[in-house]
Write a structure and sequence with these properties.
By secondary structure, this protein is an all-alpha fold. It has helices at 12-33, 40-46, 51-54, 61-81, 91-108, 110-119, 125-153, 160-170, 173-177, 186-201. Helix 4 (61-81) runs antiparallel to helix 6 and helix 7 crosses helix 8. It is elongated. The N and C termini lie far apart (46 Å).
Length: 205
């Protein structure tokens, strides 16, 4: 059970199922109406729940937004699994594969990324702190661990923790700032971004 969100149910699998249902239905409303105009009552109705039933699983829209963050990270990790990275032995090739698949994920889930980054500022301090810690641990931590594996084989210039954080930032460029590229082909932009990151790490050779 999620430590941040109290639920009256003790059935962990049911809680997970209901949280997924709430996120899926709420996102449709958020995309159509926006985060603030959407009410808890509308989320309950879209889930086929009464207000009382909904409050068994969440207490506020902040809870929903927090769950959206969790879902986004899970979708990303599940997407990375499709690349079969675990079968790649060379750390550098594994890094390149992760970069490319993450960029594909960013493009395919552009609307979700834009929503998360635009609305997270509205979270209360408790939820925001947990979301930031979760992002640092799961996203930045993922890239830092990959860089450390590469560094064992080939020297990387710079502080690896800083570089891991920078990579996490650069990879959201396409969904958040891709509009500046106008009609440039997406694949070419992805290749350019991967090349830019590798050159910055001193790994382009």
């Amino acid at each position: 059970m999620d430590s941040l969100i109290f639920s009256s149910s003790r059935n962990a699998s049911l809680i997970e199922k209901r949280h997924q249902q709430i996120v899926d239905r709420a996102l449709k409303l958020f995309f159509e109406k926006g985060f603030h105009p959407t009410t808890i009552r509308e989320i309950a109705k879209s889930c086929g729940m009464s207000m009382g039933q909904l409050y068994h699983y969440i207490h506020s829209k902040d809870d929903v937004l927090y769950l959206v963050h969790k879902r986004m990270q899970k979708i990303w990790f599940d997407y990375l699994k499709t690349s079969e990275m675990d079968k790649i032995e060379d750390p550098l090739q594994k890094l390149v594969t992760a970069l490319r698949h993450t960029l594909e994920f960013m493009v395919e889930n552009k609307k979700l990324l834009q929503f998360v980054y635009s609305e997270s500022k509205h979270l209360d301090k408790k939820h925001l702190r947990v979301v930031m810690d979760m992002d640092y641990k799961n996203v930045v931590g993922f890239w830092c661990s990959m860089l450390k594996e590469v560094h064992k084989k080939k020297s990387i210039r710079g502080d690896l923790d800083f570089l891991g954080s920078l990579i996490a930032y650069l990879l959201v460029f396409l969904p958040l700032r891709g509009w500046t590229l106008k009609d440039k082909p997406i694949k070419k932009s992805m290749d350019s971004l991967v090349g830019f990151i590798l050159r910055g790490l001193g790994l382009d050779g």
